[in-house]
Recover the amino acids of this structure.
C-alpha cells in the first residue's frame, strides 16, 4: 500500500483495477487535506484568480519542472503534492513554496497518477521530463485519459502526435513554451508569407548567445532566418554568429552574470543596399521564467478547452496565443 | 504651340509636331541610356510632378536608376516657369501650374501608358488628383495631407488606377503590418510587459511620429499599458549625434525609432528598431508602387485604388 509518509518504501502493485474506490482512503484524505490547505493559501495569495484547478507537474525535481510548480502556485492553481523522478530517491519530499511534494519512482506513475485522477478528475498534467520518456509518458497520459501539456522536447514526435490523436486526448504540445517568443516568430512568419521579397537586397547579420554548453545553433534563430530568406534577404545559416564565451557574453552581449549559465539572447540586424535604412530585432531571455509562465498559460488554456468540451484536442502555443490573455 | 525652347510662352492645347518629335527623340535617347543603366524587365514612361522638390527629385533619380523612362517634363508652383532642372543627366522642363492640364494632356497623347507620381504640397493634393482623374491618367500619390476623403472619392468616382499611401517606406509599412497582425491575432500576449519608446527626427518636425503612434497602438492591443505622452521625442542634434547615433549628414532628415519591451520580472526583453536616413527608402518604395500600378493596368485589374500593403503583397517588383 502506498503512503504519503516519507519513509514508506514498500511498493505493492494494486491487484485490482485502478479506478476502484478501494484505494487508500487515508491517502486520499491526506492529499485532500494538503490541497485544501493549499487552496486557502492560494486564495489568500492571489485573491482575484478567476481560474483554478489541480495541476500535477511531472517532474518537480527538474529545473523546468520546479520552476513550473512555483509558477503554478503563484498563479493560484492547486499544485498536486505528488510527482515522479528518476533522479530523486523515491519517497523523498520536495518543498515547493510551502508545499510538500511526494516523489515517486517513475515505475509507479500509472497507479499513482490513476489515484490522483480519481481524486481530482479535472487535473491537468504538465510534463517536463526527458526526451527518452516523452513517448512512454504520453502513452500513459492517453491511456488514463488525462489532459496534459508536453513541455519536454525530443522523443519521437510523429509517434507522440499519433498516440494523442488515436486516443482523442486533450493536449498542448509545444517545444517552445516561451509564449512571447512564439508570438514574435509568428509575426515574422506572417510578414514573410504576406510580403515575399519585401526586403530584397537587404543585408542580414544574426547573433545569438546561449550558455556555453549549448553546442547547436538556436532553433529559433534558424526559424527567423528562414523568414528573412522568404523576405528576399540572402543569408546562409553558417553566417549566424554564435557567442559561447562567457567573457564576451558579459562584456559584449550584456548578459547578466547570474544568467550566464542559462540564457538565450538573439539579435537580427537588417541594412538596406545603400545603407540608409536599418531594422533591428532582439529577443533576450534570462533563466526559465518565460517558459514556466508560458506553460502555466498553456495549462489554463487547456483546462478551459476541456471544460468547454471543445472539439479540437491537440493544440500548440499559437492556439494559446490566439485565445488572448489567460490571467 | 508648346516648344521645348525656353523662351516660348504661348500655350496651345496640342504639342507641335517638332516638339513631339523632339520629345520622342529625347525619350529614345533616354531609353537607350536606361537600358544600359539597369536591366529591369519592366519599363514605362513616368512623369514626376514636383521634380524640383526634395522627394520628387529623389524619385526622378530612382526612376532613372530603375530603368524607367523619365518624361522630361514637370510642374512647379514656385520659381520661374520655363526653367530646366537637371535630374540624372536628363533635362526636365518645368511648367507653371496654369499649364498643367494642357501639358499633361499632350504628354498623355504622346505616351499613353505614362504613370504620374505626385510629390507636391498638401494644398495641391485634391486639385492634382482631380486633374489626373479628369485626364484618366494613373498616378501614385506620395504627397500627404489635403482632404483625404475627398481624394478617395474623386478617384473612386472616376474609376482611375491609383496607389495612395502616406507612407512610401515599403519596409517600414511591412514591419508595421507585421506588428498589427501580431496584435490582432494574439491579443494580450505581452500582458504585464513594460514599454519604452524613443523616436528621433530632424529638429523641425514638431509632432510625434505617426508611425510610432501606430506601433504603440499595436502594443496596447498586445496588453501593454502605455500612454502616448511617454514617447521620448529626441530633437536636440547633439543628443541625436551622440546618444542616438544619427549620422551627421542626416541630422536634417532622418526617422529613428526604438521600442523596448521588458517582462514584469525583467528576465525577458524584446527590442525593435527601424532607422531611416534621408529619402532613399521613400523614393525606392515609390518606384515599387509605380511599377506595381503599371502591372495592374497591364493586367486590366478590376481593383483600382491600392495602398502600400497591396504593393507589398505582390512581392519583389524588380
Amino acid at each position: 500500500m502506498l503512503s504519503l509518509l516519507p519513509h514508506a518504501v514498500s511498493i505493492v502493485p494494486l491487484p485490482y483495477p485502478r479506478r476502484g474506490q478501494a484505494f487508500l482512503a487515508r491517502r486520499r484524505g491526506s492529499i485532500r487535506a494538503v490541497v485544501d490547505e493549499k487552496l486557502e493559501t492560494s486564495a489568500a495569495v492571489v485573491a482575484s484568480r478567476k481560474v483554478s484547478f489541480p495541476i500535477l507537474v511531472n517532474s518537480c525535481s527538474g529545473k523546468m519542472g520546479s520552476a513550473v510548480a512555483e509558477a503554478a502556485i503563484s498563479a493560484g492553481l492547486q499544485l498536486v503534492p505528488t510527482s515522479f523522478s528518476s533522479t530523486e530517491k523515491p519517497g523523498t519530499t520536495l518543498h515547493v513554496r510551502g508545499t510538500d511534494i511526494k516523489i515517486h519512482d517513475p515505475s509507479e506513475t500509472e497507479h499513482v497518477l490513476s489515484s490522483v485522477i480519481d481524486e481530482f478528475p479535472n487535473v491537468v498534467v504538465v510534463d517536463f521530463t526527458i526526451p527518452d520518456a516523452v513517448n512512454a509518458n504520453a502513452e500513459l497520459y492517453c491511456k488514463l485519459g488525462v489532459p496534459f501539456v508536453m513541455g519536454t522536447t525530443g522523443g519521437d514526435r510523429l509517434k507522440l502526435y499519433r498516440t494523442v490523436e488515436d486516443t482523442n486526448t486533450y493536449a498542448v504540445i509545444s517545444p517552445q513554451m516561451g509564449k512571447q517568443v512564439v508570438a514574435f516568430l509568428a509575426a515574422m512568419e506572417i510578414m514573410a508569407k504576406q510580403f515575399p521579397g519585401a526586403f530584397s537586397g537587404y543585408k542580414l547579420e544574426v547573433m545569438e548567445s546561449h550558455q556555453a554548453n549549448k553546442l547547436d545553433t538556436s532553433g529559433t534563430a534558424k526559424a527567423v532566418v528562414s523568414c528573412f530568406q522568404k523576405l528576399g534577404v540572402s543569408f546562409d545559416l553558417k553566417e549566424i554568429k554564435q557567442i559561447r564565451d562567457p567573457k564576451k557574453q558579459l562584456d559584449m552581449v550584456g548578459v547578466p552574470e547570474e544568467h550566464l549559465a542559462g540564457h538565450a539572447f538573439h539579435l537580427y540586424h537588417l541594412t538596406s543596399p545603400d545603407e540608409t535604412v536599418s531594422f533591428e530585432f532582439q529577443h533576450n531571455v534570462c533563466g526559465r521564467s518565460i517558459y514556466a509562465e508560458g506553460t502555466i498559460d498553456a495549462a489554463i488554456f487547456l483546462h478551459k478547452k476541456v471544460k468547454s468540451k471543445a472539439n479540437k484536442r491537440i493544440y500548440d502555443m499559437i492556439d494559446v496565443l490566439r485565445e488572448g490573455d489567460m490571467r | 504651340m508648346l516648344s521645348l525652347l525656353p523662351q516660348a510662352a504661348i500655350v496651345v492645347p496640342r504639342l507641335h509636331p517638332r516638339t513631339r518629335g523632339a520629345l520622342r527623340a529625347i525619350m529614345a535617347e533616354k531609353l537607350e541610356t536606361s537600358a544600359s543603366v539597369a536591366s529591369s524587365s519592366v519599363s514605362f514612361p513616368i512623369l514626376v510632378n514636383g521634380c524640383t522638390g526634395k522627394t520628387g527629385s529623389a524619385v526622378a533619380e530612382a526612376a532613372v536608376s530603375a530603368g524607367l523612362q523619365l518624361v522630361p517634363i514637370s510642374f512647379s508652383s514656385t520659381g520661374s516657369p520655363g526653367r530646366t532642372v537637371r535630374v540624372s543627366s536628363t533635362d526636365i522642363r518645368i511648367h507653371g501650374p496654369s499649364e498643367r492640364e494642357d501639358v499633361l494632356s499632350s504628354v498623355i497623347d504622346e505616351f499613353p501608358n505614362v504613370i504620374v507620381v505626385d510629390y507636391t504640397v498638401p494644398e495641391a493634393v485634391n486639385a492634382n488628383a482631380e486633374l489626373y482623374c479628369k485626364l484618366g491618367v494613373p498616378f501614385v500619390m506620395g504627397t500627404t495631407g489635403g482632404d483625404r476623403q475627398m481624394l478617395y472619392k474623386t478617384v473612386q468616382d472616376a474609376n482611375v488606377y491609383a496607389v495612395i499611401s502616406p507612407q512610401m517606406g515599403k519596409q517600414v509599412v511591412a514591419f508595421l503590418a507585421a506588428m498589427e497582425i501580431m496584435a490582432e491575432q494574439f491579443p494580450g500576449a505581452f500582458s504585464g510587459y513594460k514599454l519604452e519608446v524613443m523616436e528621433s527626427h530632424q529638429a523641425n518636425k514638431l509632432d510625434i511620429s505617426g508611425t510610432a503612434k501606430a506601433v504603440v497602438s499595436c502594443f496596447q492591443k498586445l496588453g501593454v499599458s502605455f500612454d502616448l505622452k511617454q514617447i521620448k521625442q529626441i530633437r536636440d542634434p547633439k543628443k541625436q549625434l551622440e546618444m542616438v547615433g544619427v549620422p551627421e549628414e542626416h541630422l536634417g532628415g532622418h526617422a529613428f525609432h526604438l521600442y523596448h519591451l521588458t517582462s514584469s520580472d525583467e528576465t525577458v526583453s524584446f527590442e525593435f528598431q527601424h532607422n531611416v536616413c534621408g529619402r532613399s527608402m521613400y523614393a525606392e518604395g515609390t518606384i515599387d508602387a509605380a511599377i506595381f500600378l503599371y502591372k495592374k493596368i497591364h493586367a486590366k485589374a478590376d481593383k483600382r485604388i491600392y495602398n502600400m500593403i497591396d504593393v507589398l503583397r505582390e512581392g519583389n517588383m524588380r
DSSP finds ten helices and 13 strands in chain A. The first strand of chain A starts at residue 54 and ends at 58.
